[in-house]
Amino acid sequence: MTKLCLKSLILSVGNKTLLHDLSMTINKGERWGLLGKNGAGKTSLLKCLAGILSPKGGSILLDSIPMKDYSRNQLAQHIGMLFQEGLSSLPATVLETVLLGRHPHHRSLIEDSLTDLQMVDSILGELGLETLKERKLHTLSGGALQRVSIALLLAQDPKIFLLDEPTNHLDIAFQVRLSHILTKRVTQTSASFLLATHDINYANQFCDKLILMLENGKPIVGDKQQILTEENLSQAYNCKIEKFSKEDSFIFYPA
Amino acid sequence: MILKQHYLLLGFLIALTSIAVLFSLLSGSAELSLNQIFLHFLSPQNGLTNQILNEIRIPRTLAGFTVGSLLAMSGVAMQVLLRNPLADPYILGVSGGAAVGALSAILLGASSFLLVNAAFAGAIVSTLIVFGISNQFGNWSVIRLLLTGVVVSAGWGALLNLLLTTSPSSTVRSMLFWLMGDLSQSRVYLGHFLLITLGLVGGLKISRSLNVLSRGELISLSLGINLNLLRLILYFSASLFTAVAVTIAGSVGFVGLVTPHMLRMLGARDHRVLIPASALLGGSFVIIADSLARTVIAPQQLPVGVLTAIIGVPSFLIILHGSSTKR
């Protein structure tokens, strides 16, 4: 249902223009990847789409209504974001933290709803956190903390998932599990996601469409087949990148 | 999340507060029995007992509770606002400003009415200076706020030392009592209890948002929190609570810092529980400390701030040790 429409978006940080006139649409049920070198503005674009950073120009429409017309709470019911930043230092358990994801949907001030608790329980199971749920955050490993952040986002249950480096600290099995969980949300609930990553092959494997940020502020946007070429990638990363094919699949490597 | 154990904790704290109140009413240079106190409440009679309770012990007990609960709630707010476990109600300079006001008033020989107002004015001035400087460009990051507050605090500290070293020695003793926190001159009024009520009700209202903010600002924005508004509420309510508390009793230390931590270690991490629990524990903590302050070396009285530290340090360390071995 929910679609996100960017109209002539201009994004800058300080004096640097990161995006110059970007227009595109993220429809329901689409799996998007966001690639680009360090400092290209991937995080800034995600924050902008999450309504945390204001664009310099242009507009963002959420279901044809300008995003700035939504209240923060309404926005949080549609769009959720996974951040690279950790979850701060005041003590909390895994379960308490993940339950916070239900915040935008709360009605009662006092009661924790049973359905919320059940939902969070099943999410903890999906991410292999059920045995850690009474643990304090500061006793967890980096990978477990990342899974807590992901679980919190899943508990928020947005229509559009924005993920900044979701595979950070995750071992390869959890990387795959994460993409399956996200893909399940996309197919079952018509959610969509946009994930920023440094891993070109991960994006190739689990996304259908890509945004490739370029130095000139004019990203290439479209189906991954068109975008993932040696020339495009070498230009974007300012580093020679080669494609290695095996049967009908391929991977990219620095040359 | 709220669990059964949280209701038990609140029940225990209510009981603790009642015991603290009784203890306080029993403590003092005149010996009163439990019977006399109950009789007083059942059928007040004229006489010495009546006078001691109504004019000395009850006001002092109420003042102690007010100071403790306001400081503890302010400590909770500051720790969430700054997301720093070392934050206390005084970290951003409110008490420093109040102290400069109060000591100047003492130096000028002002009446206690003027002293209270000078302290409150100092606190408000400090609050506004810190807010004005850290908020100049519309984006007050936590670090900026913290640095501004700490630096302004240091400035007040220098002024305090100047006042202490240049004042005649006859006034220095009362200045020191004020700085350490002292309840012997304290009075509270209905307005103070309304303020506590406001803290409890308002605190409950924003408690879920505080749970979220405890996890960071970005995640709060993404979970739909109106961050700017929430920060303003936290900063100004914490400053007001602190300002009122220090005008009642001077800078009673330690309560605002350790009370929230103790409760978190006892499992009250959810602000729906933490705020009322802090009010109760902070209140009874100061009542007990003050009861001891006027009895341990009676007939001499100690500043209550000395006792809050003497009791607070070991109990905090014991709970810290207990919670780290349990993990």
Summarize the helices and strands and which ones pair or pack.
The complex is a heterodimer of chains A (255) and B (327).
Chain A: E1 4-13, E2 16-26, E3 31-35, H1 42-49, E4 57-62, E5 65-66, H2 72-78, E6 79-82, H3 94-99, H4 114-126, H5 142-156, E7 160-164, H6 172-189, E8 192-196, H7 200-206, E9 209-212, E10 220-223, H8 224-227, H9 230-237, E11 241-246, E12 249-254
Parallel strand pairs in A: 3-8, 3-9, 6-7, 7-8
Antiparallel strand pairs in A: 1-2, 1-4, 4-5, 9-10, 11-12
Helix pairs in contact in A: 4-5
Chain B: H1 4-26, H2 34-42, H3 48-82, H4 94-107, H5 112-134, H6 142-166, H7 169-180, H8 190-213, H9 217-222, H10 227-249, H11 255-265, H12 271-293, H13 304-326
Helix pairs in contact in B: 1-12, 3-8, 3-10, 3-11, 3-12, 4-5, 4-6, 4-7, 4-10, 5-6, 5-10, 8-10, 8-12, 11-12, 11-13, 12-13
Give a written overview of the molecule.
The complex is a heterodimer of chains A (255) and B (327). Chain A has helices at residues 42-49, 72-78, 94-99, 114-126, 142-156, 172-189, 200-206, 224-227, 230-237; strands spanning 4-13, 16-26, 31-35, 57-62, 65-66, 79-82, 160-164, 192-196, 209-212, 220-223, 241-246, 249-254. Chain A has 255 residues and is of the alpha/beta class. The mean pLDDT of chain A is 94. Chain A has one domain (4-229): P-loop containing nucleotide triphosphate hydrolases (Rossmann fold). In chain A, helix 4 crosses helix 5 (142-156). In chain A, a hairpin with a 2-residue loop joins strand 11 (241-246) and strand 12 (249-254). In chain A, the strands form three sheets. In chain A, strands 6-7-8-3-9-10 form a six-stranded mixed β-sheet, with helices on both faces. In chain A, strands 2-1-4-5 form a four-stranded antiparallel β-sheet, covered by helices on one side. Chain B is an all-alpha fold. Chain B has 13 helices and no strands. Chain B has helices at residues 4-26, 34-42, 48-82, 94-107, 112-134, 142-166, 169-180, 190-213, 217-222, 227-249, 255-265, 271-293, 304-326. In chain B, helix 8 (190-213) crosses helix 12 (271-293) and helix 11 (255-265) packs across helix 12. Chain B is globular and about 65 Å long. Classes of the chains: A alpha/beta (255), B mainly alpha (327).
